[in-house]
């Protein structure tokens, strides 16, 4: 257990940077600080917390990708600012911003392109969260098939990678995706 | 779900946006927070000491007093606070449970008052954190033993229904219960003493007959001693037989240490009776008489201290064994050395190494009889080294070993306890894990039921069912539901999964049957008939345990009437947060009785979907969400 402690920026600055109200920020910080008194979440703790929501499967790989998506400055730990900035995008951002965030999640090496390998890794981690006891049973090539379908939909110019524009454009045309993006508006 | 994890639920839900672009199906509707209000402080006045916390903190555990509407009974309108006339010190632990999710047991607290407070606030003690669980269990056990002791004292008063045998056994075990038992106790004690005394006095030389040398009393007054011996043995035999008769479990009694001692104490006499005239074995017979001294061990029934000593020795046997082993090593080493040192000297007593053992032992234990002394200089040097090391070898480890006894002894006890509790602890963890996943599956069925109910407009039942899951739980279930939709697979119970795959392996097209029966349904027959039919079809679903998956299939008549029935919802193992919940009764409905069924087709094939799709689409396109046909 490291004795590193981190104090977040002031409430006013965070209020300016995010779309949350003062009270919301207060309540978020209270919850965050309760769980991580040191003010930092490292990857192991993050994985443990996230795994508790998915008792039947193995959520650690997906949690790893999520962690990288939140840890924007790549220093191995999530501070409250990272946490709250990410949440601001996810809950209060525009649809384009949310799609950008999702693209960032899928693009593991952050080079601006989603390759099939990256997507397969993400998909496998999502299917891992389902666990063994599913109906129908998750076959070994289920993630792969899903990736194929995804690329068929998203990859317009068939060059084997999905760029941010293809991604956003395709998603904006899909009603299901647009509807589901608004699903968690009132989470906080 | 743990309180801390509940704080991260909004985050997990927000992160679920990452699945959305990947999913091919529409997502389920999120549960709405009715009357969402800003978090407010709530004042809890416990016997004058004011505690304050957020209302949300208390809402984390809706099945306790503070988390439910039960606390409204304690609301004081004048002061706008909740007043509890309870112990404020224990309340600290209770409130900390809400804050941290862990229940701690303070050591200075009396166990019974703590239990009372927990019972008042509706908290099950089983969720005490691991840090305090052992202590709690120990105190609880002590208390229970104390209560049992009290009960036994009261029990001595009157038990009219005991048989004669049971009375006897109780008299033997507790001499204080009746006067007869006490008399018996003292009489046997007296005779044990007498018997041991005669054994001892038998060997004392008492007086000499003029023309013979001194003889021991035993040979002089043979008859007297024999009579005494006989009397004692008779008493002991009678006692043993009576105990054997009264014992509730005779086999176990015969194997116990005390009965073995009894047997060994009286056996020599009978053996002696049998073979008095045989000269060859008279030597053996004499040896057998030695065993009469075992009668002294019968005193251990009369002495608590002796029993404890015996038990202690038994439990520290390994430590004693090690002490003996190290002593043996030292003895052998020094004996060898002394032997070779004294080899040269004339008329040396150290004739062999085993002969030197005696010298080494006597020297090391600082006895120093002086029957064997070294004569050579080397021998004297080694002899002194031997006696010095003897002091060290014996005097030093003994206190260490003695303290080690108590430490290792208690540690072993604690380790055994922990091992015994480990299984229980793992079971608890597993239970909470399966509990949360089972809660999801359970609520899925409830959810389908709820949505079906919504259509008929019976809101009271819906409210009743939805009250049982807190908002946090329903949000968590919604999250899991979204994951199902993203991957297009469903969570099932382990049991059901294994069963369905056991059966699916035996059949090629299990889905043919529902298609047949669905044809019947389309023609407008009653649901009951179809559901009855489906019960007999060899579907994987059908043979699943009844409480797990009642065969579900929503079917709407062309007129749009929906037939509902009583679903027997049996709760599976409850999640940790709802340990306090009682088993839910199956919700009775005031509707007609036929089965509500939803299609959960395990292996979808085209023949299945089309007829049912036809059946459903014209009837009620709005019901698509309810049907939840998981077609790929």
Automatic annotation (TrEMBL), chain A:
Signal peptide: none annotated. InterPro entries: EF-hand-dom_pair, EF_Hand_1_Ca_BS, EF_hand_dom, Recoverin. Its main location: membrane. Pfam families: EF-hand_7, EF-hand_8. GO terms for biological process: regulation of potassium ion transmembrane transport. One of its GO terms (cellular component) is nucleus. Keywords: Calcium, Cell membrane, Ion channel, Ion transport, Membrane, Metal-binding, Potassium, Potassium channel, Potassium transport, Repeat, Transport, Voltage-gated channel. It is found in: Cell membrane. PANTHER family: CALCIUM BINDING PROTEINS, CALSENILIN. This is EF-hand domain-containing protein. The lineage of its organism: Eukaryota, Metazoa, Chordata, Craniata, Vertebrata.
Automatic annotation (TrEMBL), chain B:
It is found in: Cell membrane; Cell projection, Dendrite. SUPFAM superfamilies: POZ domain, Voltage-gated potassium channels. One of its GO terms (cellular component) is voltage-gated potassium channel complex. Residues 40-139 form the BTB domain. The keyword Transcription does not apply. One of its GO terms (molecular function) is A-type (transient outward) potassium channel activity. This is BTB domain-containing protein. It comes from Xiphophorus couchianus.
């Amino acid at each position: 257990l490291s004795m590193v402690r981190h104090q977040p920026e002031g409430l006013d600055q965070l209020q300016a940077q995010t779309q949350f109200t003062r009270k919301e920020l207060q309540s978020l910080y209270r919850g965050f600080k309760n769980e991580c008194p040191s003010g930092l979440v490292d990857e192991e703790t993050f994985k443990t917390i996230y795994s508790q929501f998915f008792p039947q499967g193995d959520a650690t790989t997906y949690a790893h990708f999520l962690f990288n998506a939140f840890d924007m400055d790549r220093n191995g730990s999530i501070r409250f600012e990272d946490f709250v900035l990410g949440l601001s995008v996810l809950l209060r951002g525009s649809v384009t911003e949310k799609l950008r965030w999702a693209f960032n999640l899928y693009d593991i090496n952050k080079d601006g392109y989603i390759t099939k390998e990256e997507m397969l890794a993400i998909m496998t981690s999502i299917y891992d969260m389902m666990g063994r006891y599913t109906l129908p049973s998750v076959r070994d090539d289920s993630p792969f098939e899903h990736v194929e379908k995804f690329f068929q939909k998203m990859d317009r110019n068939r060059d084997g990678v999905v760029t941010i524009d293809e991604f956003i454009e395709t998603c904006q045309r899909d009603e299901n995706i647009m509807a589901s993006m608004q699903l968690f508006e009132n989470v906080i | 779900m743990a309180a801390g994890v509940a704080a991260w639920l909004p985050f997990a839900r927000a992160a679920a946006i990452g699945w959305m672009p990947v999913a091919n199906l529409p997502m389920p509707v999120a549960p709405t927070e009715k009357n969402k209000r800003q978090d407010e402080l709530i004042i809890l006045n416990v016997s004058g000491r004011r505690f304050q916390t957020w209302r949300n903190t208390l809402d984390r555990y809706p099945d306790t007093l503070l988390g439910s509407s039960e606390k409204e009974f304690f609301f004081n309108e004048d002061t706008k606070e909740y007043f509890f006339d309870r112990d404020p010190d224990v309340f600290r632990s209770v409130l900390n449970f809400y804050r941290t999710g862990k229940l701690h047991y303070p050591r200075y607290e009396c166990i019974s008052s703590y239990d009372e407070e927990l019972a008042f606030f509706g908290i099950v003690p089983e969720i005490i954190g691991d840090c305090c669980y052992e202590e709690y269990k120990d105190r609880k056990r002590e208390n229970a033993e104390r209560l049992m002791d009290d009960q036994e004292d009261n029990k001595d008063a009157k038990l009219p229904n005991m048989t004669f045998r049971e009375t006897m056994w109780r008299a033997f075990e507790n001499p204080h219960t009746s006067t007869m038992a006490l008399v018996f106790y003292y009489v046997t004690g007296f005779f044990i003493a007498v018997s041991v005394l005669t054994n001892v006095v038998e060997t004392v030389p008492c007086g000499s007959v003029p023309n013979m040398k001194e003889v021991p009393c035993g040979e002089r007054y043979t008859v007297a001693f024999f009579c005494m011996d006989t009397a004692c043995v008779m008493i002991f035999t009678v006692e043993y037989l009576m105990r054997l008769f009264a014992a509730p479990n005779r086999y176990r009694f015969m194997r116990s240490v005390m009965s073995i001692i009894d047997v060994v104490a009286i056996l020599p006499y009978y053996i002696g009776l049998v073979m008095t005239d045989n000269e060859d074995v008279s030597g053996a017979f004499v040896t057998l008489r030695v065993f009469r001294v075992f009668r002294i061990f019968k005193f251990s029934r009369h002495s608590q201290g002796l029993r404890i000593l015996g038990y202690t020795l038994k439990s520290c046997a390994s430590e004693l064994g090690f002490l003996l082993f190290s002593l043996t090593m030292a003895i052998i080493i020094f004996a060898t050395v002394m032997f070779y040192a004294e080899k040269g000297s004339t008329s040396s007593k150290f004739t062999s190494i085993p002969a030197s053992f005696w010298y080494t032992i006597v020297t090391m234990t600082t006895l120093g009889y002086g029957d064997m002394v070294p004569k050579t200089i080397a021998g004297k040097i080694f002899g002194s080294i031997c006696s010095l090391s003897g002091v060290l070898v014996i005097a030093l480890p003994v206190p260490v070993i003695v303290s080690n006894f108590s430490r290792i002894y208690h540690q072993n006890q604690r380790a055994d306890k922990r091992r015994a509790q480990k299984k229980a602890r793992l079971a608890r963890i597993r239970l909470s894990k399966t509990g949360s996943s089972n809660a999801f599956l359970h609520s899925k069925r409830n959810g389908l039921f709820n949505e079906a109910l919504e259509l008929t407009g019976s809101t009271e039942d819906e409210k009743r069912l939805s009250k049982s899951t807190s908002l946090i739980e329903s949000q968590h279930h919604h999250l899991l539901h979204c994951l199902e939709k993203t991957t297009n697979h469903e969570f099932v119970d382990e049991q059901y999964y294994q069963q369905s795959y056991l059966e699916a392996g035996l059949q090629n097209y299990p889905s043919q049957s529902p298609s047949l029966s669905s044809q019947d349904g389309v023609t407008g027959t009653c649901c009951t008939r179809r559901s009855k039919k489906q019960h007999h079809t060899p579907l994987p679903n059908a043979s699943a345990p009844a409480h797990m998956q009642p065969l579900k299939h929503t079917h709407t008549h062309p007129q749009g009437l929906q037939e509902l029935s009583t679903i027997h919802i049996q709760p599976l193992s409850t999640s940790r947060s709802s340990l306090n919940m009682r088993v839910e009764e199956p919700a009775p409905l005031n509707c007609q009785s036929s089965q509500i069924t939803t299609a959960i087709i395990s292996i979808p094939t085209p023949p299945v979907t089309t007829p049912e799709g036809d059946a459903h689409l014209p009837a009620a396109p709005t019901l698509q969400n309810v049907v939840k046909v998981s077609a790929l």
